[in-house]
Amino acid sequence: MVRSDYFLQTEYIPDKRSRWVFRLLMIAVTLIFIGGMVLLALADQRRTAARAHQQLRHFAELFEQSLEASLAVANLEMWSLIDDISYLPFRYADNIDAHYGRRLQRAVEEIEQVDSLVLLDNSGTVLWSTAASLVGMNLGDRAYFQTAVTLARDAFTVGVPITSRGSGRRVTPIAWPVLSSSGELRGVIASSLGEDYYASLLSLQEVAPDMRVRIVTANGETAFANRQTAEGGSGAQMMASRALPGLGLEIHVSRDRAAVMRGYWERTIAFGIIALALFFTVLMSAIRARRHSVLLAEGLKRSERDRLQIKSAQREFDAIFENVGDGIVIFDDTGTLRRSNLVARRFLGARDDDTAVRRLRDRIPPLPVIPEGTATFRLDLPPGEGEDERQAVQCRVKKLKLYGAEIAYCMLEDISAQERLAEARMAFVTSVNHELRTPLTSLSGALDLLGDRFGDTLPQGAAKLVSMASRNTERLLVLVNDILTLQAIDQQQLSIAREPVRVGQALTEASATNAGYGLSRDVTIRVNPLPDHEDPVLMLDPVRLQQILANLISNAIKYSPPGGVVNLGADVTDKAVSLYVTDTGPGIPQAALDRLFDRFTKPIHGRDVQASGTGLGLAITRELVQRQGGEITIETRAQADGACDSGTTFRIRFDRGTSEAEKDP
Amino acid sequence: MNVLFVDDEADIRELIELAIMTEPDIEATFAASGTEAMSLLATQTFDVMLLDVMMPPPDGLDVLRAARANADQGDAIIVMCTARTSAESEAEFRALGADHILHKPFKPLKLAEYIRSLT
Description:
The complex is a heterodimer of chains A (665) and B (119).
Chain A: H1 16-85, H2 96-110, E1 118-121, E2 126-129, H3 143-148, E3 157-158, E4 162-163, E5 170-179, E6 185-194, H4 195-203, E7 212-217, E8 222-225, E9 237-244, E10 249-256, H5 257-323, E11 327-332, E12 338-340, H6 342-348, H7 353-363, E13 374-381, E14 391-402, E15 405-414, H8 416-454, H9 460-490, E16 499-502, H10 503-520, E17 524-527, E18 537-540, H11 542-559, E19 565-572, E20 576-583, H12 617-627, E21 631-637, E22 647-655, H13 656-659
Parallel strand pairs in A: 17-19
Antiparallel strand pairs in A: 1-2, 1-6, 3-5, 4-5, 5-6, 7-8, 7-10, 9-10, 11-12, 11-15, 13-14, 14-15, 16-18, 19-20, 20-22, 21-22
Chain B: E1 2-6, H1 10-20, E2 27-31, H2 34-43, E3 48-52, H3 60-69, E4 77-82, H4 87-96, E5 100-103, H5 108-118
Parallel strand pairs in B: 1-2, 1-3, 3-4, 4-5
Helix pairs in contact in B: 1-5, 2-3
């Protein structure tokens, strides 16, 4: 029996504090992660911006170097030209073109940086030009002219960009003083740096598509821009500049900040997504792990509690098992299960389970031989400690199937007292029986002799009295015999000696034996022929069968009306033989049927119908029938229940399978 | 035919005597105790013996043993008269040498016929 309080009524609630701690921890980890991510992103942004700026600066520097180198080369070549044309002052050359035209033309062709030339004298008058229209004009007011005349050898000046009248393009004037080898100023030679020049110079560098390059003169004018200013003017710009100090030029390189940072954002977002995914995976794992660990802890706690409960239940069971009044021994055939309790060990004189089981098994048949269900064995055991009488113990063995193995559950019960009591009772009955029979024998013998020898000489009244005494003596004898038979049945000492019995013959014999009694009551016994003239043979005790039939027939005669007929016969089927005794008496009331076979039952019929008897006849009959494997049934229609054709049929059914003799061929 | 009846009940002995005294072919001898029966066994031989089992010692079984131990009584038919009907006691009697068992109560009037049926 498992008590209900061994089981939890409420679900396990995990520790609230630990849950909050875990939540806070999770929040803290998330915040730290997000903070770290932001910091990383910011640092990366700064680094990206710095790197882009550095690149811009580097680019500007490279471009500046390339521009400087290019101009230095042009300068050298120009000075070589100047040397060629400065032997004489220009006023001595009546025809400049004739003298220097070819040389100047060659310079235009050979010097990459120069696509036009203008030669001016000291006063600023154009002496020669690639554009013939300019010859004769005075350009003495031009800033580059005024600067150039002040320059020393190997120097040149770059002027403010102007929009060319001829081509409409923006050009930057560049001018050299024409100095003779002695340092005498002859004039100025000027040219222009077109946007094409800058563009071709720029094309030698690697220019990012969004990069804007501007060359600005000292006064802030733009000499060159690779893109229109309006284009991409919106948004923040990132810029680097580099000055060419000797020339008064400055190179501005700028990029759209958004374009520079686009890569950064793409990278940051991708990285962020991956990091977030990883982080949340880890977070979820942590939460799950935590939940599992909570469940695990709960399970452990519960199993620990269960273990304790099982232990206490076990202890309780052990206490009951150990101290129960009967001896109990449990064992199986494999030797894994060996249990016994205190009483069992005392019976078997054993100190431990092993000895108890061994001693018990020595006294009962092997386990496989013991029949299914409950088998009972009587054990005669040596006297217990401090006693001198041997112990009579009843051992009931019940075979159980448990987890596929066969287990013997043995209950040991001290039956010494019972046996002694039974012996005493038996001795008492035997003795009473003897004491009753001896005088009865004398009494009935004496009455018989009196009737036999002196019946004729007795006066009529005396003869009647002798007959009455004789009849009642007979009744007393039947009673004593019945008691004796029942005692034998109760003591399991009723012997059944089976032999082949022909049913037809048995019926005839029973009829003949009881015919006399029938005659005295004016009742005829009729034996009905067996169906198909078959005469089945059954394995029965012939004496006991006659006793059964005599009981039933005498009952039937007793209750038949004078002139009545008692029918005797048997129904035969393949499976069973059913013997019957039918009377036409008053029948048995339904209400009395269930106590019909009880011993010393109270009268079934009213005083007017009830015949005298011992009250044991049917009890004995049923025992005798059952002891031979048969079954007794009644069909009855009672006058008391309102039947007109009243009567009773007793049937005794024996299975042919078990009680039939093997037929002789 | 010499028949020995052993019974400690005087009434029974008397009834039997009354019942079979009219039978010419039966010569009845009576013993009232086991001791008396044993002394008779020493001096006479009997064709049939009817021994009551339940007597004060020596009882019917002692007489049975004595009769079977006596070579002179070798041909005697021994019937044990008893109120005991159990199969066990019957087997015991037969094991000791009893030929028949007569259950009490018996009818004294039918006794002569019964004795004749034995021989």
